[in-house]
């Protein structure tokens, strides 16, 4: 029988409980999605096969593509807005078009480039903690830390002037606010896009030696493509990192022995960050909407051209075939082969930046506020069980 999909989560520390049963059943199971029947990929090996595979498309315009978020009926205004937003949105493009954008962006996200960004990230983290301490001894961590940091890091990366940062932060916050209605969120998105349009126009007139200046200097992208590319960086890098931060703090506080070991041996933070990414898999299936563009066999299952596929990243990351004791949180496990950043040509471009942000933020927070504690029980925490990207709505802390 086909599973109704998506399946909601019920616990901040685990994927939907149904995933385990689905994974045992088969590497590919049938699901009923809003737009029709789809294949759900439950296991790690097959997840990688689909994400790296040829004969698979991520382009929403490909026949049979199951759109992850937007619903079937749209107003003419929404269709026009979506078309404008799709320019430069290379996460939705297949090779070879996808490669034109990806090749230009890769040098901006190398390990070396991220090393250069680290002192700036450290300053932003310290500033946010200074503010929390000044207002303390209580804070709401999602607002004060989770949402604030990724938005400031993107401002830094894109060279957003200090005077505009408050506007930028308030609009990015509204854009992903689960309590705001869709019109308000669309409004914030449009305002942000107009703002980025102005930023690109300014940089075109006087390019500097930064990410935007170098993209302009390449002469490979039109104005609208540039706006689309930097908008994608903002969207892809914001809610993901923002949700990971409070969830990570919560998880580490619930495993005090492992947190104490990290404090003693800070060299282990990078490994801990990958385990946190695996354990929470906040993106799960949301970015992994695909369609078969040719008949093929995946995990012993015939998949026909035009059939929609969702990879369940959170299930793949709890697959006992790839990870021993997968439901245990273990910062020592060495989980870097997780698929929380995807796999193949679309594997997260910002993964080194995300890792650096999480590592610096978590290490510094626990160093500077050693007696940090969550002031409510796990049952009283409010989480986005119905949201696209998983996370907490709020996390009250004190010290
Ligand atoms: C914890 C944080 C993050 C998580 C969990 C995450 C997760 C992902 C995943 C799963 C994909 C693959 C989508 C697919 O296969 O279709 C992806 C792609 C992408 N991510 Fe991230 N991401 C994070 C942070 C960031 C950051 C900080 C940036 C940049 C500022 C970023 C930029 C991108 C871009 C541009 C893509 C599209 C790559 C392509 O299509 O070639 N991400 N991300």
TrEMBL record:
Coiled-coil spans in chain: none
Listed Pfam families: p450
Homology family: Belongs to the cytochrome P450 family.
GO molecular function, one term: oxidoreductase activity
Keyword Kinase found: no
PROSITE patterns in the cross-refs: CYTOCHROME_P450
Keywords, sorted A to Z: Heme, Iron, Metal-binding, Monooxygenase, Oxidoreductase
Domain of life according to the entry: Bacteria
Cited Gene3D superfamilies: Cytochrome P450
EC numbers: 1.14.-.-
InterPro entries with a match to the protein in the record: Cyt_P450, Cyt_P450_B, Cyt_P450_CS, Cyt_P450_sf
Protein name, entry field: Cytochrome P450
């Amino acid at each position: 029988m086909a599973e109704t999909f998506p399946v909601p989560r019920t616990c901040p520390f685990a994927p939907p409980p149904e995933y385990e049963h689905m994974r045992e059943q088969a590497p590919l199971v049938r699901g009923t999605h809003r737009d029709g029947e789809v294949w759900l990929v439950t296991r790690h090996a097959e997840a990688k096969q689909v994400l790296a595979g040829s004969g698979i498309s991520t382009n929403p315009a490909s026949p049979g593509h199951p759109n992850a978020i937007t619903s079937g009926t749209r107003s003419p205004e929404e269709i026009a807005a979506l078309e404008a937003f799709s320019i430069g949105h290379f996460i939705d493009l297949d090779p070879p078009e996808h490669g034109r954008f990806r090749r230009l962006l890769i040098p901006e996200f190398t390990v070396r480039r991220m090393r250069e960004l680290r002192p700036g990230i450290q300053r932003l983290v310290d500033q946010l903690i200074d503010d929390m301490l000044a207002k303390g001894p209580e804070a709401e961590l999602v607002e004060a830390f989770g949402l604030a940091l990724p938005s400031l890091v993107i401002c830094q990366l894109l060279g957003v002037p200090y005077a505009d940062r408050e506007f930028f932060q308030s609009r990015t916050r509204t854009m992903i606010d689960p309590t705001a209605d869709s019109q308000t969120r669309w409004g914030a998105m449009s305002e942000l896009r107009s703002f980025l349009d102005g930023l690109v126009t300014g940089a075109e007139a006087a390019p500097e030696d930064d990410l935007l200046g170098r993209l302009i200097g390449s002469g490979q992208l039109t104005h609208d493509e540039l706006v689309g590319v930097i908008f994608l960086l903002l969207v892809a890098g914001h809610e993901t990192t923002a949700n990971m931060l409070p969830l990570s703090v919560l998880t580490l506080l619930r495993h005090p022995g492992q947190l104490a070991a990290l404090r003693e041996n800070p060299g282990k933070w990078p490994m801990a960050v990958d385990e946190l990414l695996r354990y929470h898999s906040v993106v799960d299936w949301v970015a992994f909407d695909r369609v078969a563009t040719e008949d093929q066999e995946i995990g012993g299952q015939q998949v026909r051209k035009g059939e929609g596929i969702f990879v369940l990243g959170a299930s793949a990351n709890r697959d006992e075939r790839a990870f021993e004791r997968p439901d245990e949180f273990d910062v020592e496990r060495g989980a870097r082969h997780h698929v929380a950043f995807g796999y193949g040509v679309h594997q997260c471009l910002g993964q080194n930046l995300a890792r650096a942000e999480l590592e610096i933020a978590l290490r510094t927070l626990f160093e500077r506020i050693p007696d940090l504690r969550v002031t409510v029980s796990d049952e009283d925490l409010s989480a986005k069980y119905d949201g696209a990207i998983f996370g907490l709505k709020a996390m009250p802390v004190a010290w």
